[in-house]
Amino acid sequence: MLELKHVKKSYDNVTILEDMNLKIQDGEIVSILGPSGCGKTTLLNLVLGLTPADSGQIIFDGKDITEVPMEERGFNIVFQDYALFPNLNVYKNITYGLKNRPGISSEKEVEEFIDLLGLREHLDKKIEQLSGGQKQRVALARTMVMKPKILLLDEPLSALDGVIKESIKEKIKEIARDFHLTTIIVTHDPEEALTLSDKVLIVNKGRISQYGAPREIIMTPQNNFVKEFILNQLEIKKNNIFALFHQNMARSMQAV
Ligand SMILES: Nc1ncnc2c1ncn2[C@@H]1O[C@H](COP(=O)(O)OP(=O)(O)O)[C@@H](O)[C@H]1O
Ligand SMILES: [Mg+2]
After folding, report:
1. Is the pLDDT score of 250 beyond 90?
2. SS3 for 58-113, per residue?
């Protein structure tokens, strides 16, 4: 279990995160959802160990890891821009981290991740030759071969759309389930958060607005922010879909 207790973070005397308290059970998929600039990436970096907390505690498996450096925490992140190495091919990108930590995944396991993420035919390609979805899968494979204790994903779907977005979403779910891997996903899209995760952490102005299962959030939003920001966005999306549907219907009726 991962637990944050009274974690606080400010930059240049401006409070970014205030009194973060939460528990994430092993194997859970948790989305951190909130508007741009509310501190989602900061929260992810605090868990990763890239950014130190000002105060509070981070506990993992009963051990206080607040002061434990990033490399020793054993968590891994897929950054928002993937941060792949443009001068290396796909295979070398995937296996890059193993150079310093040989044996963490066997050759056979690396091959399994390559197949799981459908990258077999792309191994010799350069990064610039890949689509957004393919880059995301390389970034996921590169992270998974390091056998992270927690998988952190910063806006993994925001650069993707349509069918590709859905397929990456399914891959993330499959990986989390198959490896019973605690997965924390940052997103600003309510639909993504509610369809992808076991629990959603809604953050607003550096505070937790609500934390619960998607069903709870939809059925019993705890405050106006959740109602207005989250559920209204979904409502608008739904209305847009219906409007589009009716337009298309009208068009096809005219065609007949
Ligand atoms: N290294 C930093 N130094 C100063 N301010 C930062 C730094 N990182 C983030 N911030 C500020 O913290 C706030 C939250 O940023 P961030 O966590 O990236 O938000 P989100 O990911 O939710 O969009 C923003 O106002 C941002 O400008
Ligand atoms: Mg961010």
Report:
1. no
2. EEECCEECCCCCHHHHCEEEECCCCCCCCCCEHHHHHHHHHHCCCCCCCHHHHHHH
What is the CATH classification number for the domain harbouring 54?
3.40.50.300
Q: Using CA positions, which residue lies closest to atom 24 of ligand 1? A: 37
- Tens digit of pLDDT for each residue in 35-84? 999 999 999 999 999 999 999 999 999 999 999 999 999 999 999 889 99
Give the structural domain span for 206. Answer: 2-74+148-219
Is 39 near ligand 1, meaning CB less than 6 Å away?
Answer: yes
Number of domains in the chain: 1
Q: Please state whether beta strands 29-33 and 199-204 pair in parallel, antiparallel, or not at all (unpaired).
A: parallel
Q: Is the CB of 41 under 6 A from ligand 1?
A: yes
| Distance, CA of 247 to chain centre | 35
